[in-house]
């Protein structure tokens, strides 16, 4: 049960300590005895608080720490329809002080939109005016959506959020931008997806250090009792040591509750960011020049991005955040772009420390934008707030085939006279391309060498076909194929098995195609609510594991912070997609097929297909978000064995 703040006020405070490791690895200063610290905490509760009480939990963790007289925490609460404690009023915007004397309500006013720059400015101005300190950290608590969507989604105001331009505006009004001598010690995001190069570029004007996560954070979030306990024990620490304490305690907290598998958190020295931004711009210029010389570059870049670690989902079921790890993308494209090594070197220099789970092994600390879905609204958002001028023109060319507004002069500076026409899937005529079958029953698609210049990805969709009921069920997508990119020939490697939860076949989508493991997303109903089960497949061990369940992206761009672990007694409704076999215009709809009650032995694995008729369609994707689908191949499955492979006929 979550403790009520009113109860905590009466409790004796116990000091909670944490070791933050060797400061010599990350700090340029050990600090000075007697220096004061202030943390300005922008606590927008949203549905995380109204549904789960997670903000209350973190306030409770904070109040486990007995602060010294030279450390203050100034808090603004709002943005939630309900607060799961007896102190915070959801109808008010309230300001609190937590210090050596405990928690005090300072002032309150009518509710205001915490996703608005003016609200943020007024809080920062109030805190800095009334509670200045030698070292100041500003932390955000809420959902996050990456570079385009920002953070602090206010539940009371249509999930409006602070984008990067609004954050810059509010901070600049209190602490005028100064890269050479930033006013703040640390900026922290206890939110999802905000460890991006674009966020770093904004806050290098205001702070020395950034602590944020590339990936979605689990609901447990930062462990406030530990990192505030570390600050209480040693107020002489600088932002680097505090940032490391936040990272270490966060990962330890995730390990304690089992949510560490996909966690990330990094500490970036923003004073060392400029060389990275310069290298990133050169990287983009090389990419733009390569695309202008031969637009087939886009397909190679798209395939590299697909195999680079990306965050927040990036599937049609989960939604698209369009955030990819910068360092991993650089490594994947080093054979194409010589400046990739400079990006990797500069990134390693400014990211001082990071923690991460086993299924986020490629995380290098900061992500960057890449359009996985070709959405123009999302791209326009990036063009407004994103870093890297060359990449903005590159992605505009990639998705539209044209020069973005104002791009002619920029291209001329790179000695690019014109952009050649690039080919996309709609112009190839490959939709409905025939599938062939070898004498051994292996189906294959033959597109020719041009495929290497057009396709950013290829996989297959699997269907169960029931002619008697005029229905077909879509079981999902995978990329278990043998690809000859030079000749444009793609063979299926299907083995007659599919993903299954406790032996029950599921619908699943491939979400990450890695070198050591694949990640899949499985839509389910968890106790009646829509979730996506996250599962991993290890190539070396050939083992599957369940990582947890998330609710994907809200239409506003907000990423769900609650990566939920399965618990014994949970009821999972397994979902397939169903449509009419004879009506080509009918869309697939969600269809509940089985229920599984979670036990201690619940597991994900492969199971043979049940007896019946199946069809497979090869799915082609280009970098502009276009899809094309081959004709279908049909096969029978009997006792787990695939037989009678033929070209499908109605």
Walk me through the topology:
Elements: H1 5-10, E1 37-44, H2 46-52, H3 54-62, E2 71-78, E3 92-99, E4 102-110, H4 117-130, E5 135-141, H5 146-149, E6 151-154, E7 160-162, H6 164-174, E8 184-190, H7 197-203, E9 207-212, H8 224-233, H9 239-257, E10 264-269, H10 273-293, H11 297-306, E11 310-311, E12 323-325, H12 326-332, H13 340-350, E13 351-356, E14 367-369, H14 376-385, H15 389-400, H16 407-413, E15 435-437, E16 443-446, H17 451-454, E17 457-466, E18 471-478, E19 481-484, E20 489-492, E21 497-501, E22 504-505, E23 509-513, E24 517-526, E25 529-538, E26 543-550, E27 571-580, E28 589-597, E29 604-608, E30 612-621, E31 627-638, E32 641-647
Parallel strand pairs: 1-2, 1-5, 5-8, 8-9
Antiparallel strand pairs: 2-3, 3-4, 6-7, 9-10, 10-13, 11-12, 12-14, 15-16, 16-20, 17-18, 17-30, 18-27, 19-20, 21-22, 21-29, 23-24, 24-25, 24-27, 25-26, 27-28, 30-31, 31-32
Structural write-up:
This protein starts with a helix and ends with a strand. It is globular. Helices cover 26% and strands 32% of the residues. It has 650 residues and is α+β, with helices and mostly antiparallel strands. The strands form 6 sheets. Strands 17, 18, 23, 24, 25, 26, 27, 28, 30, 31 and 32 form an 11-stranded antiparallel sheet that branches.
In terms of DSSP E residues, the strand content is 25-35%
- Molecular shape: globular
Q: Which fold name is given in CATH as the topology of the largest domain?
A: Rossmann fold
Runs in which pLDDT lies below 50 for 5 or more consecutive residues are 1-32
Number of strands: 32
Instruction: Provide mean pLDDT, rounded.
Output: 90
